[in-house]
Specification:
Number of strands of chain B: 0
Largest sheet of chain A: 4 strands, parallel
Oligomer: heterodimer
Helix content of chain B: 55-70%
CATH architecture of one domain in chain A: 3-Layer(aba) Sandwich
CATH topology of one domain in chain A: Rossmann fold
Strand content of chain B: under 5%
Structural class of chain B: mainly alpha
Largest interface: A-B, 16 and 16 residues
Number of helices of chain A: 12
Strand content of chain A: 5-15%
Chain lengths: ~325, ~475
């Protein structure tokens, strides 16, 4: 038994060394100049803006769905759009902005609907591991203990995928499709908006799996949002939750899911600041997924958001 | 709790450590630990069905004691049939009731009568076919005075519920497993290493090959009517590998896990896709079920002791029952009949035991004749799997008719280059090892350098991790 135990420990140690070596020392060439690097730029802007400021937090529905300059010019308040990728997880998105929030700031949270159901999307998918280990290791400080536990198997998987040269499935759709230019670091403007795609025609729509959601709205997500609201109140900042932009033809399949989320948010007294249906836009305004708007769509949604924020500021 | 899940990766080391370090001195304590772990393992699926499992175990245990305690032959027979009927009754209610009702209603409809019978809205308890057969073998063996009943309920329960084999076999015999359970087990380094290797090989087959085949096979079978014939052929071939790697992978993990606990289970697979005819295939595929049917059905029916036609009848029954055992669907029955049709000519002409040795024994490569025999057998097996995989007979025939069209000579649209590499690795290793018990068995005899062996293990583990993101359930859990 002693020999067996020693051999097992030795073998496991070798495996751990290989995984750590791959994780920390092998660069992921597939990520070079990837859109994830925009996270660094967004943080620079977030940290450099004076308060009061408006911070948009969410996934790619924001990255692809906002004209921050237009908001800034209309409201005369500096704006940063932190929206990047839903797979980073709502917990990370919230935690990464917390320490930059000051008195009188406004945080506009626009989660994807899927964030309300999937544990992976709450605590982060493999794309978060890629960000943490190959893009911006300083972001590791935003990871909670329970989140770290959740990320361990994904980290091992990610590490091995680098070693075995397997194409990262999380990035495949980003890097390997025909529109990879839209998913590069330099496709974002200084506010954090994805703007490169504004000059492209609409692409075929990549359908999301959300229509098959049969779970209840995640209690953890609601707790995260209420906790964030309390945190902002304590800092003298304000939280505004808005629904993501959503494609009209896909809405039918999601209607029940969206109603559930709407009802649960009202239940915790942090309702959507605008009805979800108000952000359901015609299919012609979408670029390549049910969440990603094209230029015209961005303008329409941004105008709605400006109107909404003007009201909020007036009431304040 | 799947063998391929993280939960099991945590569960088993804890059981292993307690088993050898805390309870290693007393096998009775080890058995209690095994029973508790097995109940926990089973309860992770659906704890409600634990009561059914405990009841079934208790019934057979009690029947065994009662049969041995009575001198009256009729009373013994009564207890025996009570146990058989209750066991098969559970199986019938949970697995076959709806099938019989639906088939009866359809039959009445076909002759112009309308009927409306209530069907049951029940979930099939996982592993019911397996643990029922465990219990039955025990009761039958006691009835036939082959074994004495086990007095300890814990020990008997471990025989039925031992977690490595509880949900998908191998289907054990009391004569083989019980003696191991009621004796002290000692830790054996060589066997433990062998167990780990077999688990590794099973995980590789399941996660790397079967689960990846499933990604291509499922959409092809679900939308067969819009697929090209070449895609359909690809789907059928990949399903052939999927079901083998899925089921034999499970068996490898089960055998390896049990070996780590000092228990040897029955071998379930013997490289069936290298068979030279269907008879050999059935000696190498799901061996524990085939031999179960042979010992508890075929031989009691008369086996091959009577006339040729009697053994033909008995063989046909075995194939029919074997198909039906897999599930309550005409597709499985057709699959069984299809194999019977392939097997019976061999039996009639006395050629069913032509290939009892290993193919190309002592050689690197098979002869041309052997290669052709292997390919023909493989093609027939592939054809049979179409019926096994299809959701209905209509779908199966639709699939087959779409298969034979001009688009058969086009290129499949699915990208399978990486998968092909892994299937090649599987076939290569299994061919090299075809005289051993499983793919990595006795690897030290072929590869002398430990570092090289460890290199192979590391490669396999990395491949498993790479593909192991979302564990898929095992196909045979539904049976």
């Amino acid at each position: 038994m002693k020999k067996f135990s020693i051999q097992c420990i030795l073998f496991i140690s070798i495996m751990i060394v290989i995984i750590l070596f791959s994780l920390f020392l092998i660069p992921n060439k597939r990520l070079t100049d990837n859109s994830l690097y925009a996270n660094i730029d967004k943080h620079h802007r977030l940290d450099s803006l004076p308060s009061p400021k408006i911070v948009f937090v969410g996934g790619s529905n924001l990255g692809f769905g906002l004209d921050s300059k237009r908001v800034e010019d209309s409201l005369h308040i500096p704006v940063v759009n932190m929206g990047l990728h839903a797979g980073l997880g709502l917990r990370f998105m919230i935690n990464e902005v917390k320490c930059s929030i000051r008195r009188d700031d406004i945080v506009v949270l626009s989660p994807e609907y899927d964030h309300f159901f999937s544990t992976n999307l709450l605590d982060g998918e493999k794309v978060l591991v890629a960000l943490l280990f190959d893009v911006n290791r300083r972001d590791l400080k935003y990871i909670t203990f329970s989140q770290a536990i959740h990320l361990i198997p994904l980290t091992v998987e990610y590490s091995v995928s680098k070693l075995m040269h397997k194409e990262m499935d999380v990035m495949d759709e980003d890097v390997n499709n025909n529109f990879d230019k839209n998913y590069r670091r330099n496709s974002f403007n200084k506010y954090g908006d994805e703007v490169m795609h504004w000059n492209y025609p609409n692409q075929s729509i990549h359908q999301m799996a959300g229509a098959t959601i049969i779970e209840n709205v995640s209690v953890s997500t609601l707790e995260l949002i209420t906790g964030f609201d309390q945190f902002l109140n304590a800092r003298g900042a304000k939280l505004v939750i808005i629904p993501p932009a959503f494609m009209s033809s896909a809405y039918g399949g999601y209607a029940k899911v969206i109603d559930d989320i709407d009802r649960e948010l009202k239940g915790v007294k942090i309702p959507f600041a605008i009805k979800p249906k108000s952000f359901v836009f015609p299919d012609s305004l979408f670029f390549n997924t049910v969440y990603h708007l094209n230029r015209q769509g961005v303008t329409e949604r941004t105008d709605s958001i400006i109107g909404l924020l003007k009201t909020k500021l007036k009431n304040k | 709790m799947l063998f391929t899940s993280l939960e099991f990766a945590l569960f088993f080391p804890i059981v292993f450590a307690l088993y050898w370090f805390a309870f290693g001195r007393k096998y009775k304590l080890q058995n209690i630990l095994l029973l508790v772990s097995s109940y926990y393992f089973y309860g992770c699926w659906n704890w409600h069905f634990l009561f059914l499992l405990i009841f079934s175990t208790g019934l057979d245990y009690f029947t065994g004691l009662m049969m041995s305690g009575v001198s009256n032959k009729w009373k013994k027979k009564l207890w025996f049939w009570l146990s058989v009927c209750v066991n098969l009754g559970f199986l019938g209610v949970f697995k076959y009731y709806n099938f019989f009702i639906d088939s009866f209603v359809n039959l009445l409809f076909a002759i112009g009568l309308k009927a409306d019978f209530a069907t049951l809205q029940v979930i099939l308890p996982v592993g019911i076919s397996f643990y029922t057969f465990h219990g039955l073998s025990y009761v039958i063996d006691i009835y036939n005075d082959r074994i004495k009943p086990e007095r300890s309920f814990v020990d008997y329960s471990v025989f039925v519920c031992f977690f490595p084999l509880l949900v998908a076999g191998p289907i054990e015999r009391a004569t083989h497993l019980l003696p191991q359970i009621i004796h002290k087990r000692t830790f054996d380094y060589t066997k433990a290493v062998d167990g780990l290797r077999q688990i590794l090989w099973g995980l590789f087959k399941k996660i790397v090959i079967a689960d990846n085949c499933a990604l291509i096979v499922n959409p092809i079978f679900a939308n067969y009517h819009i697929q090209s014939a070449s895609n359909l052929l690809l789907g059928a071939i990949l399903f052939t590998f999927q079901i083998y790697c899925d089921f034999s992978g499970y068996s490898d993990i089960a055998l390896g896990t049990a070996r780590l606990l000092g228990i040897e289970l029955l071998r379930n697979f013997g490289f069936p896709y290298f068979s030279r005819d269907i008879a050999e295939f059935w000696r190498r595929w799901h061996i524990s079920l085939t031999t179960w049917f042979r010992d508890y059905l075929y031989i009691p029916l008369g086996g091959s002791r009577g006339t040729k036609w009697l053994s033909v009848r008995n063989t046909f029954i075995i194939f029919l029952v074997s198909g039906f055992w897999h599930g309550a669907n005409w597709t499985f029955i057709f699959w069984g009949v299809f194999h019977a049709i392939l097997f019976l000519p061999l039996l009639i002409f006395g050629r069913n035991r032509l290939h009892t040795n290993t193919v190309a024994e002592g050689k690197y490569l098979p002869s041309i004749k052997e290669l052709i025999q292997i390919l023909i057998t493989f093609a027939l097996v592939v054809f049979g799997w179409i019926f096994f995989r299809a959701t209905s007979l209509a779908d199966a025939f639709g699939y087959v008719s779409s298969l034979f069209s001009r688009t058969l000579f086009t290129l499949p649209t699915h990208k399978i280059s990486t998968l092909c590499v892994y299937i090649f690795i599987l076939l290569f290793i299994e061919w090299i090892q075809r005289e051993q018990k499983y793919g990595l068995s006795k690897l030290e005899l072929i590869i002398k350098f430990k570092s090289l062996r460890w290199g192979i293990y590391i490669f396999l583990i990395l491949s498993i991790i790479q593909f192991g993101g979302k564990p898929e359930t095992f196909i045979y859990f539904q049976f």
